[in-house]
Design goal:
6 copies of one chain form a homohexamer. By secondary structure, the first copy, chain A, is α/β, with parallel strands linked by helices. Chain A is 44% helix and 16% strand.
């Protein structure tokens, strides 16, 4: 663990993307991201969980040669969790950058996932970084950190009725909407990610599409990620019907009616 | 206590399962767990308290040769309780892994019990560990911990109307449903765990089945665990009727009507 | 105070019960406690304040030769208050067991009074200690403490409508119900504890019985403890009517009507 | 300030009552206090602010030769504020008793004012000290403090509809009710405390009695303390009518109607 | 900054009033303050913001030759913010008095502004200081501080429906009511404070009087302080109408109707 | 990072405005700011986000030769975040000014953005600094900081129904109202800031004006900042219609109807 305690030669070493992440584009999103990055405009990705936002960001980080620092936001996240703090450790006291200041200082892509979970005030620290000033006041360190020229800010969240970012935060971002990929893309992803045969993949996508038609909750919840997991279990040798039970039916809901409805669909497709 | 203060040779020594735990399977759950483990897919066990989830996980840890690190979740649990912290102790300052980082670093089965009690934000730290990335950002330690290849994540909770995991958390798990074992299994468990004679065990299971028919609360509450306790008191020499009073009637409820109802059943079976 | 700062030879010295506590049994509770202790099953005592639960536990600790570590639960009690913490004191930093870990480590009877006042999450730490595992994870100390073979857990609370333990906590205990002792026992206790003459004691118990018939609140509140206090004042030379005013009437309520009602009874008995 | 940092020879020096406090008894309260003290029964004084409870306690402390440690309770008071804590100060770390442990350790009268303002859980620490055990568990100091034989606990509060102590706390005390002294006592107190002529004092008491008849709020609020202040201003040379305006009218209320009503009474008496 | 870190020769040096503050009396308030100070009775000043309370206190501090320690109360103010704390600074640990203990120890006038904003419990620490005892228990310092003979306590707040001090706090103060000065005084203050010509001052006061007639909110809000600011801008060369827009209209409200109403009055007086 | 840890020669070095910020005046705001600054009257800028308030302040700081210390207020901001604190860092303990004390001590323009987000109590610390006293009590440092003669305080917020500053805070400021610049100014800003051709800029402003007519939300949200971003994407080569989708449509709202309405306008203007 000594490597951790010394000032590392490359402070972003842990956050470099090691291998090219598989990403199947579903539109012009790659070019749009590049245009925004050319101007260093902060980006907001909107869409339900499991629809490929994180994978897309990983892909873009790899493509642009940027280290990727990811933060999963939550309502207990304080400004200090993003900005850093003074730590007392085995070598005495030292300033430790948080993920945001680390990325801004050394020039990484900083990706804040589920931004809407964060308390509005924790997001206020983004304001001077996300407008033309591109600075981050680190009050506890007595420092006004100017962002590295390569630094880029990307955030994402799943839009939900009744919850919104404050306008002053929101209007600092250029936004892109994501949703479940079209059926052929779903099949291709399943073949690549789960290792299913195309035909198996198509049947599974067929089940998902019917299930998503059940209700709105299903539409949001039965994500690409869940399909990939079901596919992996099948490819790993589990009986298809059982894999659906574990990865889709039980994973989807605890409510008896919803469980029944999805089970009926699964029974029909995997008799 | 000096052993505690030195870096232990085997940091998981305390958490190895010492002897094979008795577990009576009630279906295909053992094979399903193994299939999910082969792919290292995180597992969610759903079911009421005392129905055997913890015992099942102990059994699987033993079977797979994995140390078992258990965490009972509660609403005051902060992310730091899972991830670890810098401690000041008799040897100076040192980083101490939390149960989750300990298990992820050294390759244990990490079992989070009663997941639904935890605040959603404490669960957000599970996200990067529970998807294809299998990493745990330890921000306070300035470290991005890649999970050990043998590391496996299992969680459980008792589904309750009106409480649910956030979809982004939930869809990262493959799920299995548990409930009270079938009657013959209950009898077998009582014989093994409490040391009752089969006939005694059957009478006790009979009482439980009738009691569970009383109302929904009883169904959830009169668990296998309570039966085992009643059985142990009987096997230890306490009069059966008194053992029921202590381990079932009084332990079940404080409400006079419910106490009366259960008492009537006990009176009938143990006159 | 130096004795406090050194590791004491007998860490439970303070908590040994010095002399046999007077306890007048009111049923089979002594044998039932012993049966549960033989199996080390955790015990839950239910009943209103002042009805003898604490005295009973003191008695059993003396009888079983166990030191008694008592904790009065309250809603601000955190897990660390039960489990212990790292302290910085005059001798440097050292780990200090909390009452629960102290009792579990060295083999005492640990009595948690008014359990229902504690926040549910503080009680979650009891779970692995109160089932067949009998272990206490001390995360801050990096230790999985296995309970001493003689360790026993006893808890108590006063059942109140609308407040209950979580089922997962509750079903880990074998339960016994307590209430005010029968009249002859009350008299005997008053004679022994307050030093009253039997006739004086009977008159006081008579007042209490009539007062308890007033309403439910009185039934719960006019406890054995209050009678003992009234009796002590009388035995100490205070006029009986005045002793009732101080120890019963004013101590019972601030509401004018209730005060009047009880005063009328006292006036009748002690004219 | 060095005296503060060294362990003082007499830890209660600051809290000894220097001179005999003037107290005019209004009934048998002095003898009743002495009877309760003979048995070391904890005392609860009930009554509105400013009616003489604190002065009575000071008087009794002087009479019994006990140092007096007073604590004004408030809703932010934590258990540690009563029990003490480890402090880091110029001489290193040291344990510092809180007012309650100080009084219990060295044998003082501990007076908790406005007990009802404290959070119920802070009061839970009083339980073992206020029953036959007379011990105070100082968990942070790893100590079970046995109370000094001379230690006495007295608490007070102003009963208010809808607020009450928990029964488990309340029934540990013997209670005495206080209210405004009778008119002759009021006059005597004014003469002694404010230095008024008896005739001046009678006129002021007359105003107060009429004002208290206005409404219930006035009855509680126009306390002996306020009369003493008005009397002091008069005795100091301020015009009587102006002294009433400052010490009674404006001090009593901000509501125009109430101010008018009291002013009318004052105008009538001091034309 | 070294002067800060050494114990200063005169601990109240910063708080001495350097020059005689201009104050125009509006009644007998100066004599009344002096009478209360002669008896060291704590004073409560009631009135809307900006009506001259602070200036009056500054004036009295100068007149009486007392240093003035001012505290602006707020709902996050804890008892420690008034009483002091142990600090770790460059010279090691040391006790630092808070503003209240500083004033009480060395004999200053302590002025607590906007007392009603403070949490009731923070005010409880005032009780023993504000009655005949005149002591301040500094529990964290293990000290019972007796107030300096010259120490005086003054508090103020703006009475608001539905908010009140607790009676136990309130009845410890002698109270004086403040409101906007009469018109001639307003003119005189404007001439002195803003440097306006009397005629200019009278026109501005005329505007204010008409505006205060608009509604109750205006009455409270259009304070002497705002008039002084408008006057200063005019005297500094800004066009009168524009000065009113900035210092009165826009500063008064964000609501379009209120802004329009005040603007109409300003247009009429400064066409 | 050593420069951070030493007391810097020029403590405001980071906060000097490096180059003249482009600002297009829309009225007399520059002269009004200068008049208020001549008297050092605190200024309050009211207006929606993105309408140019920050840029205006940057411009004035440059014009007046003042360093600019900016603070984005949020509801978790405590008084200590403005005033400073004692820090333990690699060089030992040292006092670190917060942004407000830094600016007040050394003579900068301090700009508090989104003041209304701050908790009222955090704003109480502004009171003595924002009236004629111009002092800042730094209680934790035991210091009464007199503001530097050049120090100026400016705050801003976006007025919203139902939220207001407390009168005692508000009446300490002279206020100016901001809104979206007039159309020609918008065009000029777009040409300068985004590098658009005037004709492109006019079309974009035309779209914005029509969109702002949609509803009130749009009026507030479609700010100058968003137009500049859309213009930058266009000038960077992105197709105009796509740039509107990302920088205006998706960035504006997640609600389908609003997205449709704005999209229809964009389709009409960029067919
Ligand atoms: N367009 C895509 N290309 C490749 N994989 C995808 C794509 N969309 C979804 N996936 C799969 O779905 C999983 C979940 O996607 P992820 O990016 O983590 O979702 P989100 O960040 O939106 O919650 C990924 O691990 C990947 O297997
Ligand atoms: N299938 C089973 N095999 C063996 N023992 C069981 C089984 N189910 C329940 N038990 C018994 O019930 C007790 C409670 O089960 P446990 O696994 O702790 O429940 P849960 O984790 O669901 O709350 C166990 O200690 C064991 O004695
Ligand atoms: N069965 C009993 N035997 C002896 N004393 C008793 C008994 N029941 C109650 N008491 C008396 O009542 C008092 C209060 O009982 P305690 O055990 O403290 O009550 P609880 O713990 O239920 O609140 C004891 O101090 C004792 O004097
Ligand atoms: N019986 C009494 N004898 C002497 N002084 C009294 C008496 N009752 C009230 N006082 C006067 O009233 C003041 C307030 O009484 P205090 O004891 O502080 O009230 P409480 O504690 O009930 O709020 C005292 O300072 C004293 O001047
Ligand atoms: N009677 C007065 N004499 C002199 N100046 C006054 C008077 N009343 C108000 N002022 C002016 O009004 C301003 C605000 O008064 P201040 O005492 O700060 O108000 P408050 O403390 O009531 O909020 C002062 O700075 C001063 O210029
Ligand atoms: N009057 C103006 N002159 C120059 N640029 C302006 C003007 N008004 C707005 N802007 C542009 O709009 C952007 C947002 O303005 P800003 O001052 O940050 O808004 P606010 O502080 O009101 O939220 C600026 O970066 C700038 O490009």
């Amino acid at each position: 663990m000594s490597a951790v305690l010394q000032a590392p030669a490359d402070p972003l070493a842990d956050w470099r993307v090691a291998a090219e992440p598989y990403y199947r584009p579903v539109g012009d999103e790659v070019a749009q991201f590049q245009d925004a990055y050319a101007l260093r405009l902060p980006l907001l990705l909107k869409g339900p969980p499991g629809c490929g936002k994180t994978r897309f960001v990983e892909h873009m980080a790899w493509t642009l040669g940027l280290p990727l620092v990811t933060v999963a936001c939550h309502e207990d996240m304080a400004a200090g969790d993003l900005l850093g703090r003074w730590l007392i450790d085995a070598d005495g006291t030292r300033w430790q950058d948080g993920p945001l200041s680390l990325a801004a200082r050394h020039g990484a892509l900083c990706y804040l996932d589920e931004l809407i979970e964060a308390r509005p005030d924790a997001l206020t620290v983004l304001h001077p970084l996300a407008d033309t000033r591109r600075v981050l006041p680190l009050e506890r360190n007595g420092e006004l950190l100017a962002a590295h020229p390569r630094f880029q800010l990307v955030v994402s969240y799943n839009p939900q009725p009744g919850r919104d970012l404050r306008p002053a935060t929101r209007q600092r971002f250029v936004a892109m909407a994501f949703e479940a990929p079209p059926v052929p893309a779903q099949v291709a992803i399943l073949v690549h990610e789960a290792g299913l045969e195309p035909e198996q993949a198509m049947r599974l996508v067929g089940l998902a599409e019917r299930a998503r038609a059940l209700d709105e909750g299903a539409q949001a919840a039965l994500s690409m990620r869940m399909l990939v997991r079901a596919g992996q279990l099948m490819a790993g040798g589990m009986q298809a019907r059982v894999a659906c039970e574990l990865a889709l039916v039980q994973a989807w809901s605890d409510q008896p009616e919803r469980v029944q409805a999805l089970r009926a669909l699964a029974d029909a497709l995997y008799p």
